[in-house]
Amino acid sequence: MRVIIAGSGLSGLVMGHCLLRAGIDDFVILERRPDPVERSGSVIGFFAQTFRILDQLDLLHDVQKLAPHLHRWTHLDPSGRTISDGGFYDFLEINHGHPSMLFMRRDLMEVLYSKLPGRERHIFPNKKIVDVKQDDSSVTVTCADGSVFNGDVLVGCDGVHSAVRGLTFEASEDPKTRPPRAEYRGLFGSSPRPDGIPANNVTETHGKGIAFMILCTEDTAFWLITTRKEEGASDSQKSSAEDIKALVGKYKDHSVAPGAKVTWGDLWQTRTTTPCPGMYDYHESVAERWYSGRVVIVGDAAHRMTPNLGQGGNSSIESVASLMNHLHALVEEKPNPSTAELEEAFASYQEERQAQVKFIAGLTGSYTRWATWRNWLGWFMQSWMWPLLGDRFIVNWFLSPMIKDSIKLDFVEEKNLPAGKVLWKYH
């Protein structure tokens, strides 16, 4: 079987590793950018369920040595007063064994790329997909440079603005493939960690229409500033340098540390410029249709959510694992499956994942609105209910039930599963 993967981002590279573990060496990864490794200055968080899959791919130690464990999550009001401060991430580690960790996205992507065997013959940069055609026996991809790739399966791992989704599903003008909405946007970047913000913790300051999430390692403060977009703004709005300047100017005196020891302006003044800070829209959608014939989408191409609970990347990797489980089972039984047989496997993958990611996307979207005090309910949930319930209760009753049911690869051994209080559904 020959597999074509669109996109060498998180989902695409993990898909490549999974294919090799499944004994499928005949695949290509087509990346539209000239650099196959994403060099974004944003950060990404991984939880226990993702580390189980990385363990199966022999990537666990290489990834975990990139960063320390996270411990606490502190919530502040606009004056710097502590609303709540608990061992949120410690409780997750106690329950599930693996830690919660925060990575510079470019460092993580470098590991996924450099550890992919035969990457030079598998990954092709400068391959912008402009056409997708399929018949009963194959799928053909044409790129902007005129190159053509043929395969048995095409997997769209090419993000929220997926070319594969657009060319395969949206070309039919199916209303169920409507583009994702974007009501919020975020400014991300990093600065040297100031003394007033604790290391290896998340410190989040809430206000009307704004949330400052500062995620700190020993040396670096990664920040994500979430705001609601202007009424009537486009769902595909591109932010400019002027947009960033306006946001910084509006909130430069806003406290972002306990006791108001540090302002947002302080962090901005010491920002890292390589890579530069960036602003992007938070697209929110779960596609109703994930496959058509020999084409299937995964990760952000199928489900995109706000980043404030750090579930986007974790959900994408879990969806890759689900797709691979169904594809591996099919190919083991039928090495050259028909289109109908592939669609049956893809349907099982969608059925297994769709309801779960809808729930997660709804949860993260709700949290984004609570964190920015969208209305009185958001203020009440963040300022009163969260501290009243406490981090241990929230982890035990909301996060752990979701994490313990997470999918892993069912055809690869798991070597390093640390003990936790909560029993995994798949172990």
TrEMBL record:
Q: Which InterPro entries match?
A: FAD-bd, FAD/NAD-bd_sf, FAD_mOase_fung
Cofactor(s) required, per the database record: FAD
Q: Which residues form the FAD-binding domain?
A: 2-356
Keywords from the named record: FAD, Flavoprotein, Oxidoreductase
Q: Which Pfam families match?
A: FAD_binding_3
Under the heading SUPFAM superfamilies, the entry gives: FAD/NAD(P)-binding domain (SSF51905)
Q: Kindly list the residue ranges recorded as spanning the membrane.
A: none
Single GO MF annotation: monooxygenase activity
> Of which family is this protein a member?
Belongs to the paxM FAD-dependent monooxygenase family.
Name of this chain's protein: FAD-binding domain-containing protein
Natural source organism:
Podospora didyma
Q: What does the record give as the organism's lineage?
A: Eukaryota, Fungi, Dikarya, Ascomycota, Pezizomycotina
